[in-house]
Amino acid sequence: MRISRRTFAAVAAAALFLPLSACGSGDDGGGSTDASGKIEGDITFQTWNLRANFKPYFEGLVSGFEKKYPGTHVKWIDQPAEGYADKISADAAGGTLPDVVNVSPDLVAPLAKAGLALDLDKTAAKYKPEYLEGAWASHQIPGLSGTYAFPWYLNTGPMFYNKSLFKKAGLDPEQPPKTYDDLFTDALQMAQQSHGKVATLANVPTIEDFGRYGAELMNKEGTGFAFNDAKGVELLTKYKELYDAKALDPQALTATPESTGKKFLTQAVAMNPGSALDLGNFKKNAPGLYKNIGITDQITSTGHVNMYVMGVMVNSRTKHTAASVAFAHYVTDAENQMSFAKQVAIFPSTAGSLDDPYFTKEDGTDETRVRIAAAKSLKNAVNYTPVLFSEQMKTALRNEVAKALQGKESPKAALDNAVKASDQLLKQQG
Amino acid sequence: MANLTVRSRVRRQLPTSPWLFAAPGLLVTGVFVLYPFVSTLVNSFTDRRTLIPGRFVGLANYRELLHDDMFWTGLRNSTLYVLGVVPALVILPLLLALLVQKNIPGITFFRSAFYTPVVASIVVVGLIWVWLLDERGLVNSLLEAVGAGRVGFLSDQWLLLLSAMAVTVWKGLGYYMIIYLAALANVPRELHEAAAVDGAGAVRRFVTVTVPAVRSTMVLVAALASVSAFKVFSEVYLMAGPAGGPAGEDTTLVMLVQRTGTGLTGRVGYASALSVVVFVVTVGLMLLVLRADRRDEA
Q: Which Gene Ontology BP terms does the record give (chain B) (predicted)?
């Protein structure tokens, strides 16, 4: 078979320009925004690394929904924690995003911008009063009107500290630092007394640390970042002092939350943020540490601790909008959130749930003490991480912070550069 | 008559037959190699993002590369990786192959032992080395015990890069050793014997007999090692972390592609331009090695 030059040219041109077709305006594939229809149909629900530990809970949740709404069928899929954003982006780009998806605010922002997340203010506004005001607002995106996910569970946690290391450094183990000034003073003393062998902190400051310290993270319009203000520079300057004195772990520049957790577990660092979930881990994997564990509140200059919010988003292109919205609401309603909270150390985002005796009554155990303290602080907690702060921006900030700590740039110059890079990325996000 | 018909049909079908036989392979190559390649090339001229369709931006991505500090950091680190790893992976496996080539009792165990890192998962290998080189790991404990003090293998940008190179070399030794063993098996024993009779010692025999005999294999190893070293990702990612070491100073080009182009806010267009640069440099490296070989032969 001879291939004519014309055929060859046509094939080559198709190969060259076919990919361009993917660059055209995306066909919206047409889901309905009307959630008032009959609740029926087959939908898919995706969670974020929850199958391993909570399989029976979710199977019960799904069967409960299917019983409540005959004619519905929910296929539950779970994705591992690692690469979750990549999995969602591949599904979103390939048009295979599940109908109902477990998301965090920073994940929902690009999906909402691409028109893939259903605006709940339009389709499910009646459910809004069921949730804490701040939690409902956590999935609103600057520059877009609307709310793009049901708030699901919240989490926050105390600071854990190692009483034994505090004692060895000549610090009062019953008087952990309550303010940033106390923290910096104690950390320097710890480093001095241990000859630089024990650091107090093992993480470089992240965007939420700047927020908790009182820096303005974004301008009012949400069009640019502002954490290079005086407060931001002050925090980074303090961290530089800690780094130089080895009060901040030398490996902090390359640390991950997992590696710092391990360092705290092996008693190489004296303080680490965590949640009630960690107590079980300490008890099981580091009994020596557990005996000496101290628990104190998150340090904040703003009066608001940081909280993490999980959400449940509805794919705007679902073919079963009514069933998807109903299921997303069902997963996040007060009863099911409360039931989930009793399985694991998370906190419901539904109004009034945090007043349940489960979150208010002491029973003398550390777990309950942490739970009650966290529930109390959640009532006025803030999700400091701006929803538009992408992974690329986090990396840019982290790299600039590292340059400041190494002395390659002044804290002011480093933060100016980080803000500039983040603004540039924000602009490119559109 | 019937035979004639069959024969003529066969003759008629002959010109298409090769294409039919090649079709499955061509299809797989087209879908999984050619299409992604062309797609990457086209994307590199757009501002496409993960979820937002792109517009044609001409050479803007390539111009941006030139002003991107992280691109130059990546290019520097990937080049250093080639310079650090390739000579070691050309010489050390050859010496190792010479060592295990000898038929002495128990040598099979050592051959297998040297090959084990090749089959081990890179993630497992990376984690083990991270534990070993940690501030409180085995290596630092030993150094401290002998009074040398702790070394920041995982906190200093250059030591981190060197540590990752060491892991790449350690993991690749067995693979290239096998290639050399096959080449050494073809070196006539008489050449060594003749050289020995002429009074050549072990080093002299290595330089004048072994090296020339396996020279083409050395070129092959250099080419393979250069390409994989320039495209290094796993070792550095595992040891330096997703951010690429302190201040991202250990980022390699492929890490930069991954960091820039993935996730919901990934800049697919820009990452594609980076990938094209990686491709061009890789092809350039191959050509350079092959050209050097040809010049030596001439």
A: transmembrane transport
